[in-house]
Amino acid sequence: MVLIGIDPGLANTGWGVIETRGSVMRARAYGCIHTEADETLNLRLGTICSQISEVIGRYGPTSVAIEDIYFGQNTRSAILTAQARGAALVACAQCGVDVGSYTPMQIKQAVVGTGAADKRQVTYMVRNVLALDHDPKPDHCADALAAAVCHANLSRTFRVSAAHGGAAARALVAARASAAASSEHDRRVGE
After folding, report:
1. Strand order across the 63-67 sheet
2. What is this structure's pTM?
3. Which of 110, 187, 190 is CA-nearest to residue 149?
4. What are phi and psi for residue 24, nearest 5 degrees?
5. Cis before 8 (ω within 30)
6. Per-residue pLDDT reduced to its tens digit, 82-105
C-alpha cells in the first residue's frame, strides 16, 4: 500500500511517500514545496495545490494523511497554515484520494509512543521505522513522513480489528485519542 503524508504550511509544505508491506514500512520519496513570501497568496496556494497534485499523480497513493492545524499563540500563522492545508485538501479531492486527518498529538503518539514528543524524537523514530540511513530534512519532510506512518499504523489496526469484529480497534483508537487530548490539555494548562 502506498501512502502520502502531508505537513501543511504556507512557506513550506512537506510531503512524504511511504510503502507498506505487512508491518514493514519504507520511504519511497519525500520533499518540500516552498513558496516565497513576496508572492501573492493565491499564487502560493496554487503552487501548493498543483505540486501536491503532481506528487499524487506520480506515486498513486491509496490514501493521504494530513496533519491538522495547531492553534497556538499566533492566530495569523494558524490561519495561513489552514489555507495551505486547504490547498492540499483540494488537490486530494481533485485526484480522488481518500484523506485521513490527524492532530500533531495523534501523530506523535502513533510514531513515538507519546503525544509530548519533540521534533528530534519524531525525526529519530521516522528514520528508524522507515530504515533510512539519514534524517529526513527539512523537518517538514520528517513530519510528513510521520503523518504517513501514523496513518499506516492506524489503518493496519482497523484492518486487523475488522477481521476480529472491530471492537478492539475502536477501543484502541479511542484510548489513543483520549491520551492525546489529555496530553494536549495538560500542555495548554501548563502554558
Report:
1. 24-34, 12-21, 2-7, 63-67, 98-102
2. 0.82
3. 110
4. -90, 130
5. no
6. 999 999 999 999 999 999 999 999
